[in-house]
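Progress against Task 2.4 (sequence-to-structure conversion) is shown through the following example record, which the project officer requested during the mid-term review.
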Amino acid sequence: MIQEWLKKSESIPRKHGLYRMEAILEALGNPERELKSIHIAGTNGKGSTAAMITAFAKAHGLRVGTFTSPHMDSIRERIQLDGVPLEEEPFWQAASVVREVERCLFEEWGAFNYFEILTAMMFVVFQQEAVDLAIIEVGIGGLLDNTNVGHPLVSVITTIGLDHQDLLGSTLEEITAQKAGIIKSGQQVVVGPVSCECMDVIRGVASEKGATVQAFGEDFFLIEESYQDSSLTIPLNQLALQGAFQKENATVAIRAFRAWMEVTGRSAQAEFIEAALRVVSWPGRMEVLQDTPLVMIDGAHNLPAIERLVQNMTASKAKKQTLLFSALTRKDSQQMLARLQEALPDVNIILTSFHPSRGLSISRSDVEAYLDSPKVSYEESFEEVIDRFASSKDNESELWVTGSLYFIAEVRHWWKNRKPKEE
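Structure tokens generated for the chain above:
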């Protein structure tokens, strides 16, 4: 029954604003106030950065809680302890606690939505588990996101690009202002590679709040595949996460972790960080499903992520590449497709559909205009496309699967249960 309640909450519209979340947390005894957290916003790189900071904390013997979205296989992945999804029993116990609060507040606030419930559950679990460090990823934006409560010790802004313009604004400056909304008074703010215009907005907000900015390329650096700051150099050439952009994410993650350790009176050890970088994983982002022929999945779900995907595909030495793409209809899939066509003229692009639990996948009618190109086609079943390619003997070809993270999650789930074709 509690499972049905949570499932039903997915249909309740997401309400942007903190007044509801603050009321929920007050009814729970304000668990967020007891956490020493790192809050992460950004257009891309949030999840990878959170995964790396989690690995660093574990390597230093710290108890760490991590909150991310969306999930790949199980909803319990969104709330992790020491990098492991929360077990069934404590997950649903936390859900029951939040449901009881909903009953008490229902007359005033109505039913809680999916994101309010999960955020409240996260705070309850992390308080109960007395985590040393809570790593909290923003859902959308920052200023009005449900996670923007309490007073994190460190805030992180990974990257800034055009995404969710319907909610965050149509310009980079407007989007930056939303993401900079997570900045709190007196805290450390670690900023990844962003444009000068975006940095000006961030510095303006930080100045108003009395926060200290540590900027990529000014206070810490990525030089010759190594993280560098005034007192530390850490090689990144053994980073387990694939993609050149992950070295940028690693650089931001190291600086954020060091800042948090300094604020809490601890010292980060280079050898522990290096060891963590060698083993960290983040599913669905530049993840190899099969080596020969290569099947690579990457949740490039917006234009900035598409640009990074293009860079990685272009760097490949494969003689033939095929790209399988799907997205939610509400996303800017038309712009993403246009960019892929322009940047990868020699790549065969196959458009497909999937079955998301929320929203609608693109269909043939949505992409009809692109099918005039000899390099673009549509196939209803992504399973058949991947199966056909993975079972082939063409070891000089690559299949890249990309688009919505919900699409990537569906692909991963299917792949895990796939029965390879008989030879």
